[in-house]
Amino acid sequence: MGKDLIIKTLKHESVDSIPWVPFSGVHSGQLKGYTATEMLTDADKIVECMKEVNKLYMPDGLPVLFDLQVEAEIIGCELMWADYNPPSVTTHPLEAEKGIPCDCKIPTPESGRLPIILDAMRRLKAEIGDETALYGLICGPFTLASHLRGTNLFMDMMSDKQYVKDLMEYCAKVAIAMAEMYIDAGMDVIAVVDPLISQVSPRMIDKMLKESFISVFDYIRSRDVLSSFFVCGNATKQVEVMCQCGPDSIAVDENVDLPTAKEITDKYNVALSGNIPLTTVMLHGNQQDNIKCVLDLLDSIEDKHNLIISPGCDMPYAVPRENTIACAQAVKNPESSRVLVENYSSSFDDIEVEIPDYAASEKVIIELFLLDPEQCAACTYMLASVEDNFDAISDIAEYRVYKYFIKEDIARTQKMGISNLPTMCIDGEPKFISLIPNRDELIAAVKEAAAKK
User: Does residue 175 fall inside a structural domain?
Assistant: First the structure.
């Protein structure tokens, strides 16, 4: 059974085939005609949609829910709901004044949407849990801290390291409470999803964040349950310190070269999951593109021990179901799938885009190349770093936002030679690559560009 493949892989045992885990998220709502909001707020719809994913996509493992705002909503963040994305955080309770929420804010089974989620988990465990490994996804401590504190958190990391450690300790308590509830509801794997980890240096992770992550993974292990550490963005430099936090596996997106990452994870005997591109392949490609991509991933890895094939992150809502089915077929039947893409070559539409004349512009042009500012936490906070501080530079700068799920913006990203997302360019120069600048860094970079005009 598929569940056995996942369990054995995460226990680093030998398996006779590569496991497949589709991160179907709100996309699963599309399969049954529900909006993201409808699905994420109704236990019956979660169960219905996950059973459909289980039937169509033949997963070995399956996340029950992909929503990093559950904890933030409980603690006091306001959310903006959407039809085609998970909700996004719009307010940060600790933005104006530093503080640590009291322990009465630690989630309990009665908090927020947890009664709905826990009910869905228990029902899915009973209905499909014998054949499919069920993942419970929790918001990682650093991303939760950013939900609470906003972009000020990145300034805190420079000016008040002890506060960051204290806030991380609280957020780790939240993560442990969530893990406890999800384990009690029958989840086989607890995935700590922390997209913002890619936005800070390994040194800062080691000094301020690592201890909290270790405490979460230690707790999961103490319950005799397996774990995974999800990250978004170009986390190549962070993979080693992530391994040192003690997860059983790590999941990376298309920004990370899978063979390079696997060389690192193999040193620590940590399984690696990844990393089918979400937009260029799954959303905008065809079935042959998806089959070829999976086969290329498999062929790029010499030692397939400790390997799981999955999308790079939460799948976009509108991914055609036939594309995901193609991925599943390629993972499960790689040799017969090769016949379908023999001599096939894919090319992205040749879309004409106009690159700004930076030298002729009176103002500095800030360009934000993002995956999706409504769904990708790292993208959300990179955009916020500009919006929140624009008052200080609006007389000398303007900014533009490009989204990697829009074909024209994909073409622009490729024409500009942007290889990692999110990236902030200033007058055409990639200035902050998978790193969120604090207020001082942003203002200094813009003023430096303005002085050259």
Answer: yes
CB atoms within 10 A of CB 284: 21
CA 245, 216, 238: angle at the middle one, nearest 5? 30
**Residue whose structure tokens are 């501080």:** 389
pLDDT of residue 348: 54
Query: Which residue in 113, 71, 86 sits closest to 28, CA to CA?
Result: 86
Place of tokens 């509801």: 185
Q: Which residue has the tokens 């992150």?
A: 313
| Same domain (yes/no): 36, 155 | yes
- pLDDT tens for each residue of 379-393: 888 898 999 999 999
Crossing angle of helices 43-57 and 114-128, rounded to 10°: 40
**Contact indicator for 243, 270 with CB cutoff of 8 Å:** yes
Token couple for 27: 């996309």
| CATH number of the domain where residue 313 is located | 3.20.20.210
186: left (phi over 0), alpha (psi -120 to 50) or beta: left
Q: Is 212 exposed, middle or buried (0-12, 13-18, 19+ CB in 10 A)?
A: buried
Mark whether 320 and 171 lie in a shared domain: yes
pLDDT for 418 = 86
H, E, C per residue of 379-394: HHHHHHHHHCCHHHCC
Considering the domain boundaries, does residue 80 fall inside one? yes
Task: Kindly state whether residues 229 and 272 are assigned to the same domain.
Answer: yes
User: Tens digit of pLDDT for each residue in 270-298?
Assistant: 999 999 999 889 998 889 999 999 999 99
CATH of residue 384's domain is 3.40.30.10
Domain containing 409 equals: 364-451
Q: State the total domains in the chain.
A: 2
Does one domain contain both 293 and 375? no
Per-residue confidence (pLDDT) for residue 343, from 0 to 100: 78
Does one domain contain both 368 and 402?
Answer: yes
Count Cβ neighbours within 10 Å for each residue of 372-411 and write b for 16 or more, e otherwise.
bbbbbbbbbbbbbbbebbeeebeebbebebbbbbeeebbb
The Cα 182–Cα 187 span in angstroms is 6
Q: Quote the tokens at residue 158.
A: 């420079």
Q: What is the rounded distance in angstroms from the CA atom of residue 276 to the CA atom of residue 273?
A: 10
Can you list the residues of the chain whose pLDDT is less than 50?
none
DSSP letter for 438, please: -
DSSP 401-435: EEETTSHHHHHHHHHTT--SSSEEEETTEEEEES-
Q: How far apart are CA 111 and CA 268, in angstroms?
A: 37
